[in-house]
């Protein structure tokens, strides 16, 4: 169970995230939605301590995440893998090596300095790539792959960490609808098959509805909605997106994603850009 208690992050006097308290049981798939600047990325980054809360507490089971230091903090960051909109691969290295880099925090410093990978690490990386359907790219330079393939490499690298939780910061914002669907299907299957908690920031409401059992809506740094996707009523959408919610149309489907699990197609509710 991940627990946030009155978590606040200020930049100067401005509160990007204010007084957020939520509990996320292990194995949930959670979508965090909200307008640009609502505080979604800041919230996610505090979970794996890329940035620290100004106030409040983040706990994972009995561990007080927000006060970890040194090796314990590195262990937490290993358990709490993160993928990003811009993939963050090393473009000049091949795909296999990029994926194996996810294993660094499991190795001794000496082994890392030696710079060699074991047979079992290679096999694990190939298996992760196979799971994501891109094993054929293993020896290609990562920078030569399409955006959708690169994001799948990033997910494979995250899996190499054997994480308890996968944080995804706008994982499909740079992708076309087909690649976005492939990436979201991958996150969903990892969530369902490995029981890994997935918390993902999303720009499009329809994606959150399609893939996430729970949606957290943020506005002005605060949580203004927290519930199952099917409770995202028009009123809830207005709370999250404010006046722009008035302009949302059920009919816009250009970025609508239907999961490969055969989810019934639903109308897209996408805020005006
Ligand atoms: N390092 C920083 N210094 C100052 N202000 C920051 C910093 N990081 C974020 N902010 C501010 O905090 C607010 C929330 O930013 P955040 O990136 O969390 O929003 P977001 O909901 O993820 O937006 P987007 O969807 O555009 O990524 C914004 O007003 C942003 O300008």
Automatic annotation (TrEMBL):
Keywords: ATP-binding, Cell membrane, Membrane, Nucleotide-binding, Translocase, Transport. Residues 251-273 are annotated as: Disordered. One of its GO terms (molecular function) is ABC-type phosphonate transporter activity. GO terms for cellular component: membrane. Residues 2-245 form the ABC transporter domain. Gene3D superfamilies: P-loop containing nucleotide triphosphate hydrolases. It comes from the Bacteria. PROSITE patterns: ABC_TRANSPORTER_1, ABC_TRANSPORTER_2. The keyword Transport applies. Pfam families: ABC_tran (PF00005). CDD domains: ABC_PhnC_transporter (cd03256). The keyword Lyase does not apply. Belongs to the ABC transporter superfamily. This is Phosphonate ABC transporter ATP-binding protein.
């Amino acid at each position: 169970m991940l627990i946030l208690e009155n978590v606040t992050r200020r930049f100067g006097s401005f509160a990007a995230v204010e007084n957020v308290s939520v509990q996320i049981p292990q194995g949930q798939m959670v979508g965090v939605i909200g307008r640009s600047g609502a505080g979604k990325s800041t919230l996610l980054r505090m979970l794996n301590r890329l940035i620290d809360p100004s106030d409040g507490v983040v706990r994972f089971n009995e561990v007080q995440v927000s006060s970890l230091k040194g090796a314990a903090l590195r262990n937490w960051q290993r358990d709490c893998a993160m993928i990003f909109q811009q993939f963050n691969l090393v473009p000049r290295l091949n795909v296999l090596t990029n994926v194996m880099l996810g294993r660094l925090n499991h190795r001794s410093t000496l082994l890392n300095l030696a710079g060699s990978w074991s047979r079992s690490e290679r096999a694990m990386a190939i298996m992760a790539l196979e799971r994501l359907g891109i094993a054929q790219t293993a020896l290609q330079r990562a920078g030569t792959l399409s955006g959708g393939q690169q994001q799948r490499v990033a997910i494979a690298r995250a899996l190499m960490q054997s994480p308890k939780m996968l944080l995804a910061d706008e994982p499909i914002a740079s992708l076309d609808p087909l690649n976005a669907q492939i990436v979201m299907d991958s996150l969903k299957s990892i969530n369902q098959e490995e029981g890994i908690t997935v918390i993902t920031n999303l720009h499009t409401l329809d994606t959150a509805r399609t893939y996430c059992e729970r949606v957290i809506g943020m506005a002005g740094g605060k949580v203004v909605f927290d519930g199952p996707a099917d409770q995202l009523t028009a009123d809830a959408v207005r709370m999250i997106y404010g006046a722009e919610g008035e302009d949302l149309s059920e009919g816009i489907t250009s970025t609508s994603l239907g999961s490969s699990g055969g989810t019934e197609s639903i109308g897209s509710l996408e805020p005006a850009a």
